Amino acid sequence: MDCIFCKIVAGELPSTKLYEDEEMVVFQDIAPAAPVHYLAIPKAHIPGVDGITGENSAVAAHIFEKIAALTAEKGITDYRVVSNVGEQAGQTVRHLHFHILAGRLGGPLY
Ligand code: 5GP
Ligand code: ZN
Fold it and tell me: Is 95 among the catalytic positions?
């Protein structure tokens, strides 16, 4: 499959990984939008939040648990978790990912 995040999971594309287990990877965003900008993704190819179902939602819970643990471990207490769904919302990579942003957020989104 021609998916850059599947290639990162497979090690076919390089990335700076902060965390990895059987189900997920967290790595640095290549074009950081804030001083801290990580991407948390499932290893399985799910197209986006719109592809989360009763069959695969356990991985989403697992990812959120690890986001909480990883940020706590790094002393990051104030951060934003974002997942764009669809082109008009800014999704450019059609593999589920959660942006973890911290350090310069510019106030609440809503
Ligand atoms: P989206 O626009 O889909 O919400 O987020 C995709 C994110 O992936 C963007 O922030 C972009 O900078 C990042 N990205 C795209 N290609 C690569 C890559 O090859 N490596 C890494 N580490 N990040 C990437
Ligand atoms: Zn993929």
Answer: no
β-pairing, 24-28 with 17-20? antiparallel
Q: Does residue 78 contact residue 52 with C-beta atoms inside 8 Å? A: no
Rounded to two decimals, what is the model's pTM?
0.96
User: Read out DSSP for 32-83?
Assistant: -SSSEEEEEEESS---SGGG--TTTHHHHHHHHHHHHHHHHHTT--S-EEE-
The alpha carbon of 28 and the centre of ligand 1 are apart by a number of angstroms equal to 9
Pocket test for ligand 1, best of 92, 96, 99 (most atoms within 8 A of CB): 92
What pLDDT does residue 108 have?
73
